[in-house]
Amino acid sequence: MRHEDILKEKYGTDPGFRVPDGYFEKLQKEIMDSLPAYPETPRHVPVGLWQRVKPYVYLAAMFAGIWLMMKVFVNVSNSSTLSLDNPPEAIVQVLGSDTHDYDIYYPSESDIILEEEVSSDYESIEEFKEDFFSTEDSFAND
What is the pTM of this model? Predict the structure, then answer.
């Protein structure tokens, strides 16, 4: 004999749990009666002018931002004419004016030649710092 048959003989097939007659029919009514009254919300809510226009304003702002970004990208990609060999006129005017005392670095000179010229003029880094950095600069304390 199988194990299931032994259990059925001993305890029977009745699960022992019963639902009273009509329980589920009256359960929903009892639950709904015990809940507090739910206020009904008005179906039509007045919408202001800004609420109606806001999506279109946001859409226009988004397209304006995309247009500006594309304009910047185009301007940056077309600015290949700028280089150190061919600076803009405004920079040339500033460098050529008497109010500024700049030594213009010409790209034809190599860095090694400039380094040799500077190192021949100064025997230590302290002399170099005294000429080029004031005492207020942070480099003077290094």
Answer: 0.30
